[in-house]
From TrEMBL:
Highest taxon listed in the record's lineage: Bacteria
Protein's name in the database: Metallo-beta-lactamase domain-containing protein
Reaction equation(s) it catalyzes: 3',5'-cyclic UMP + H2O = UMP + H(+); 3',5'-cyclic CMP + H2O = CMP + H(+)
Name of one Pfam family that matches: Lactamase_B_2
Domain named Metallo-beta-lactamase: residues: 72-239
Coiled-coil regions, chain positions: none
PANTHER family, A to Z: HYDROLASE C777.06C-RELATED (PTHR42663:SF6), HYDROLASE C777.06C-RELATED-RELATED (PTHR42663)
Job description of the protein: Counteracts the endogenous Pycsar antiviral defense system. Phosphodiesterase that enables metal-dependent hydrolysis of host cyclic nucleotide Pycsar defense signals such as cCMP and cUMP.
Amino acid sequence: MIVHFLGTAAAEGFPGVFCRCEHCGKARTLGGRNIRTRSSAIIDGTLKIDFPPDTYMHVLRDGLDLGLVRDLFITHTHADHLLASELAMRLPVFARGLDGPLRVYGHDAAVRVCRGALGRPDSERLQLRRIALFETADTGDARVTALPANHDPDETCLLFWIEKGGRTVFYGHDTGLLPAETWAWMAGRRADLVILDCTNGNLPFTGSHLNVEAAIGIRDRMRAEGMLAPAARVVVTHFPITSDSCMTI
């Protein structure tokens, strides 16, 4: 399983779109790895998590072929995770040479936002599928279970437990401290890679996002309760530091 981090920034990106602070100015001058984009990841080139406004830039920067992506899982509808209108670029007239539909999975709000932007799209190009909490979607070569996040009280936000090729990834953001139901579901299971929200970095914990201390606490509990495979890695992303990469904890 190859996990490609396309972007690891929080909603503002780094540098911020309008920001003129010293740090953003330095990032613009240095460029390269100092430029961070809104978060998304792709697994083995065919399974994508979230569709942020930076997706087109990710395609150009990393030479991606999004025509190969068969399954797109949306964590929630915040603007840095879902630009639903851009999915219309997969419909006839805009895209040619595609040999199957893109299945877009999300909970209530995500499906509703996509419907608002796309109506009822051509099912040979796009299929919108509601995934309920604790439901497992079988994509044919992966199994993806939707777990509850602790993020926005106004919508059902999702985390994903992804099993593919004998490996397991826990995609754990955006979220604050994990809900009890999520811990209960993970009991007795093991992950090879854990990806956690760390939007607050060294700032105080706020509840809807994690900071370093809270992320380490989740790692330590998963380790203590046998939820990490022997060689598991835990990385934190979605936080504004001057590197478009992740940090292992």
